[in-house]
Amino acid sequence: MTNQHQHEKSAPLLGKIRVSGDGLIVRAMLPAKKRVSRQLVGIVASLALIAVLATPGLAAQGPADPSPYSVEGETGSEVYLFGDAAFHGSLEQADLETAVVGFGAHPNQQGYWIATADGAVSAYGASDHHGDANTYDLGGAIVDIAPTTSGEGYWLLGQDGGVMTFGDAGFHGSTGNIELDAPVVALAPTPSGNGYWLAARDGGVFTFGDAGFHGSGANLGLTHAVKTIIATPSGKGYWLFSLDGGVFSFGDARFLGSLSGQLDGEEFVDAAPTLSGNGYWMAGESGTVAAFGDASEHGGLAAGGDEPVAAIAVTPSGHGYWLATTPGRTADGVAVPANSGSGRRIVYSNSGQRVWLIADDDRVVTSYLVSGKANTPARGTYQVYSKSPVAWATHDGITMEYMVRFAYGKRLSIGFHSIPKYGNGVPMQTPEQLGTYQSGGCVRQHIDQAKFLYDWTDIGTKVIVVA
Predict the structure, then answer these.
(1) Number of neighbouring beta carbons within 10 Å of residue 221
(2) Which residue among 147, 298, 384, 449 is the one 20 to 30 A from 10 at the CA level?
């Protein structure tokens, strides 16, 4: 195995403290979360070929409707057709509990596979189901699926670098036993199928089997995380694509253009090469599709936010492509602030008085308005270091629920919790006031939102505070 990767130690967990920003102390701790598995079934019988989706906007700067806090969207994963792509089915909302992370086309053009972050794989058309990782005890989210050239198998990739093989896909190694500096995000098989490349979020490239090493982005000082890797048809090169639409070419891969600086707040999500290797398509989360080199234009979707695009796959003929979407953006479609990190995290915008809960695969799980204190805490990266289901102030019998502590103030700790109540049960503010500054330091939430954040968050979860 050859690899190119830099090492960066993660920050240690902070020690516990027993007093919070609202003068709270720990009363009890809830048990740890349990892993839940499921099976994906079902096919959507029809497809809307034209979607009108709401354009994502910037974070609100003041009071707004505090009501939306649903975890999932109202629809399932849709599959949209362009050029000679044919429809074979898609995931229904009832069967979709985690994000769509990959879409693999069958080489006979009569089917495809859809993979989700929990390891489930759904097969459509002529594609056979060869197994999945839905019942595995995964070390992290599944982030990619790659079919074999025969169409009789596929690889699944975990963000820890674990590679799982199904059907005639061969195992050639993984980074599952390596201490990674950044999660792995994508797998690209070699033309022979006897090897593959893995790409990490920081631009590192790992080679296995007959995959050759042609360079990486680990030493390039990338300003945005790498999202995917695709190989040239010769197997003698590859491209890395970053979230801002940047393109980095290695080996015999040619730079043919990029979307860097052109996405207007939209994030790049996936790319696919032409059959010749002299072109590629790039897809953005709102449905933008850009063609470079000898890639032909077949269209895209209207800009949207409730149902972001997750993947693009080219038809075997090269004359069309599919776009697969995933629920993930919240009902109001407010975009995550730029430069707010990557991976599993909570993002808190102080000026917007809003939080986003973001999963391992960068899917927005939920977002809603909160009430905190101006300029508190300072902008930066923090970690959750303590949780308690009930906490109380040292005066007036004030209590609050679902405390999640992540920062230290001048005298007290700072955390997320429900709207506090006085000893007589009267709330200290109304839900309608969420979105405005009301707190003495902590971040107040609607009770349902506070419980969801509490259950979703583990000790050590990153919290990114932005202006």
Answers:
(1) 7
(2) 449
**Do the domain assignments include residue 52?**
no
43 by DSSP, 3-state: which? coil
Largest Cα–Cα distance in the chain? 73
Is 159:183 a contact under the CB 8 Å cutoff?
A: yes
Query: Do residues 392 and 422 share a domain?
Result: yes
Supply the pLDDT for residue 52: 23
Which residue, of 325, 343, 371, is where some domain finishes? Answer: 325
Q: Which amino acid is at 340?
A: S
Residues across the chain: 467
Highest mean pLDDT among 110-124, 217-231, 244-258, 294-308: 244-258
Alpha carbon 125 to its chain's center: 27
Give how far Cα 324 sits from Cα of 159, 269, 282, 307, Å. Answer: 20, 11, 13, 10
Cβ atoms of 55 and 436 within 8 Å: the answer is no
Statement: residue 120 has pLDDT above 70: yes
For residues 104 and 253, membership in a common domain is answered with yes
Specify whether the CB–CB gap between 178 and 6 falls below 8 A: no
Task: Check: CB of residue 383 under 8 Å from CB of residue 17.
Answer: no
Q: Is the pLDDT of residue 237 over 70?
A: yes
Tokens coding 154:
């596929």
Q: Which two tokens stand for residue 195?
A: 């090897």
CA separation for the pair 340, 354 (Å, rounded): 13
Residue 57, domain member (yes or no): no
pTM of the model: 0.61
Give the H/E segment covering residue 464. Answer: strand 462-466
Q: Are residues 364 and 386 in the same domain?
A: yes
Range of the domain at 263: 79-325
Our separate counts of H helices and E strands in the chain read 1, 29
What residues contact residue 333 under an 8 Å CB cut-off, 6+ apart? 54, 55, 56, 57, 304, 305, 306
Residues 417 and 400: their CA atoms lie apart, in Å, by 6
51 occurs within a structural domain: no
One-letter amino acid at 222 equals L
Whether residue 371 has pLDDT greater than 70: yes
Higher pLDDT, 309 or 363: 309
Strands 195-200 and 184-189: antiparallel
Q: What is the DSSP letter of 433?
A: G
